[in-house]
Amino acid sequence: MGILSHLSILHLLWAALVFCQYEDYDFEDEYGGEPDHQLPYYFNPNSQAEVPHFPFPVECAKECFCPPAFPLSMYCDHRKLKTIPNIPSHVQQLYLQNNNIEAVPAGPFTNVTFVREINLSYNNIKFHMIDHGVFAKLSNLVQLHLQHNELEEFPFPLPSSLERLLLGFNKISRLPGNALEGLPNMTTLDLCNNLLDDSVLKEKPFSNMKNLMQLNLCNNKLQTMPPDLPPSLRHLSLENNSISHIPENYFNRLPHIIALRMSHNNLQNIPPNTFNLPNLLELNLGHNKLKQMFYIPRSLQHLYIENNEIENINVTVMCPALDPLNIKQLTYIRVDQNKLTSPISTYAFFCFPLIRTIYYGEQNVTVSRPSGLRTPVFRRFLTPEEFQEAEDNQEMVNQETEEDHEAEDSYFQPYYH
């Protein structure tokens, strides 16, 4: 019994080490954005690989490092490798990023059975240098990182088990009609910083991806909204394109959208009810050409409309009616670099009682239309330190004209009430 007990303890320790070694990847850092929320990793429990039935495998490619603490991982990154070494059959995580690899032949993957994650980012891989079907044979592959390479085409075929595919910072300009077929478990697809244009999307390549939750198409050459996106979508990233129009009712088939990012486009006029989405939390429309406001859904918390051409924040358009039983959740608005000359109407605090911060910053106003904004940041609720700072500035306020003082009272009233 003593021997069996010791063996049981060893197996438990080994299982704990295996469980702790899985690594998540946050692509937010790739694009230098301002991540207000870390985007979630959606994991499909039905695609888990079987764990090898032997403890502490020691086989490792001589070019790489297999730490005893993570017995199912092989680290071959940052080693100036030009080729992929042979991969032991037990490996589940393979890290080959930041090398000089140009090709992905089938040979090194001959005996691979359990691999779940492959990171080949920051190499020099081209599409025609990937052996046909080399990834498709990896029936337990869940994550594939190929960002920052030289890919001109989408690297298909791929295994049906795949959940996360990262292809940012390549030269992909084509998506063959069948490239995304047979991927029922795909939840995250990153195609940012490529050469995709509207012609690529005519075949509606994403329409059959029934479990897709995150689609990133930022920094491409799109001029129109991508057609027929799947209703499962939660996060849509379209920043840095040339989109000038959102078709009416476009989002009717996307009721689960949580975050929509469309900054740095050419948007001018948006139909008032375009964003009437029940689950929308974050909306980023900064750096466009907007002149008018639009309806704000109850769920929205963060709104970014900086660097537009808005002269007046029409609260009535944003909030046509008050509903005490369903208060709106908006807490933060960024409106700097517009053409505002006065603060947002205090009526906004009846419509959006949870607002904490309005970032006015600097406005693009002319000398003939002087700005009446007296602070770059408006905070609904002050910390004790901020309250004391406001008190210390009272003497300066008293020196202003009576008209200025009345405007100031109207502006700062929500601070104290």
From TrEMBL:
Places the protein is found: Secreted, Extracellular space, Extracellular matrix
Keyword flag Hydrolase: no
Signal peptide: 1-20
Bias kind Acidic residues: ranges: 389-409
Organism, as annotated: Tychaedon coryphoeus (Karoo scrub-robin)
Any GO BP: cell adhesion
Name of the protein in its database record: Osteomodulin
LRRNT domain residues: 59-93
One GO cellular component term noted in the UniProt record for this chain: extracellular space
Region (Disordered): 389-417
Subunit structure: Binds the alpha(V)beta(3)-integrin.
Record InterPro entries: Leu-rich_rpt, Leu-rich_rpt_4, Leu-rich_rpt_typical-subtyp, LRR_dom_sf, LRRNT, SLRP
Main location: secreted
Superkingdom field: Eukaryota
Classification via Pfam families: LRR_4 (PF12799), LRR_8 (PF13855), LRRNT (PF01462)
Family named by the database record: Belongs to the small leucine-rich proteoglycan (SLRP) family. SLRP class II subfamily.
Keywords associated with the record: Cell adhesion, Disulfide bond, Extracellular matrix, Glycoprotein, Leucine-rich repeat, Proteoglycan, Repeat, Secreted, Signal, Sulfation
Function description: May be implicated in biomineralization processes. Has a function in binding of osteoblasts via the alpha(V)beta(3)-integrin.
